[in-house]
Design a protein that fits this description.
Length: 278
C-alpha cells in the first residue's frame, strides 16, 4: 500500500459566516432560556402566594411597611370617618371573616388612593378634595377593598420578589441583606404590579358592592370622569399603561347600570363639608 500526503486546499477551515455569529446565537439562546425560567417562576409564585394565610400577610405588612404607616394620621377625624365607611362597605362586599381593612388617611396633595399588603388602604387628602359625593368615594374604597379581597397585593409582591431575586441571583448578588431590602421595597410598591385584569375585576366587585350598599350605582363613574378632567382629557396610551383607560371604565360602569337599572329617585349622598374642605 502506498502512502500519500496530499496538499490540503487553502480555505478549507474558513467560512463566510461571521466568527461572532455562533456566539450571539448562543447568548440569545441562553437569554431566552433565562427569561422563560423567570416567567415560569413568576407564574408559579403568583399561584402559590394565594394560599398564604391572611394573618401571615398582615405580619409581612407590619414588618415591611412601617414608614407608610408613619405617614398616615390614624387618629384624625378624617380617618375615623373613612374607617366607618370602609367597615360598612366591607360588609356589603362580603369579605371573608379573617380579613380586616384598615384605612390610613394621609394629609398630602397627591390625588391618589391605593391598597397594599395586610388589608391596608391609603387615601390622600388631595383625592378627597376632588370627590363630589359619598357614592363616588365609596367606589374608590370598594375598589381598593376588592384588591385586598382578591389577594392582589400579595400576588403582586410574590411576582415582583420572585423576578427580582432571580435577577439578583444571576448577577451574583445573593446576599441576604440585599434580598431583604428587595422584599421590603417591593412590598411598598405592590400596587405597581396590579395588571389590567386585576383592575377590571376590582371595578366589577366595587360596582356590586355599591349596588348592595346603596341599592344603585349612581355616581360610580364620577371618579373616572374626574381623572379625565384632571389630565385635561389626556391619558397614557393604553398599550403603555397597566390600568384600563378611564373612558373604558366609564363605559363599563354605564353598561353595569343598564344591566342593573337604578330608580330615578335614587339619591346621591353628599360628603360632609369638613371632609373635603381644602
Amino acid at each position: 500500500m502506498s502512502y500519500s500526503n496530499p496538499k490540503i486546499p487553502e480555505g478549507i477551515n474558513v467560512t463566510d459566516e461571521h466568527p461572532l455569529k455562533d456566539f450571539f446565537y448562543m447568548l440569545l439562546g441562553i437569554g431566552l432560556t433565562v427569561i422563560a425560567i423567570i416567567m415560569v417562576l413568576a407564574i408559579t409564585a403568583e399561584y402559590l402566594v394565594r394560599f398564604i394565610p391572611f394573618s401571615v400577610e398582615q405580619k409581612l405588612a407590619n414588618h415591611f411597611q412601617a414608614e407608610l404607616f408613619e405617614a398616615s394620621t390614624e387618629t384624625s377625624k378624617h380617618q375615623q370617618y373613612l374607617q366607618e365607611m370602609t367597615d360598612r362597605l366591607s360588609v356589603a362586599q362580603q369579605l371573608p371573616k379573617d380579613m380586616t381593612i384598615t384605612v390610613h388617611y394621609i394629609d398630602g396633595d397627591e390625588v391618589n388612593a391605593f391598597a397594599t399588603l395586610g388589608g391596608h388602604v391609603f387615601i390622600y387628602r388631595g383625592l378627597l378634595e376632588k370627590i363630589k359625593s359619598e357614592n363616588a368615594l365609596s367606589m374608590v374604597l370598594a375598589h381598593e377593598i376588592a384588591h385586598i379581597k382578591h389577594r392582589d397585593p400579595i400576588i403582586a409582591m410574590g411576582r415582583g420578589v420572585t423576578v427580582s431575586l432571580a435577577m439578583l441571583s444571576l448577577v451574583g448578588a445573593g446576599d441576604s441583606t440585599v434580598a431583604q431590602q428587595v422584599v421590603g421595597q417591593i412590598s411598598l410598591l405592590t400596587t405597581l404590579g396590579f395588571n389590567r385584569d386585576m383592575e377590571q375585576e376590582a371595578d366589577k366587585e366595587a360596582l356590586f358592592t355599591l349596588k348592595n350598599h346603596y341599592g344603585h350605582t349612581k355616581a360610580a363613574e364620577d371618579i373616572f370622569s374626574m381623572f379625565i378632567a384632571e389630565q385635561n382629557g389626556l391619558e397614557i396610551p393604553e398599550f403603555l399603561s397597566t390600568h384600563p383607560q378611564s373612558e373604558d371604565r366609564i363605559t363599563a360602569v354605564k353598561g353595569f347600570q343598564k344591566q342593573y337599572r337604578h330608580q330615578i329617585n335614587d339619591k346621591i349622598t353628599p360628603l360632609p363639608e369638613w371632609l373635603v374642605k381644602p
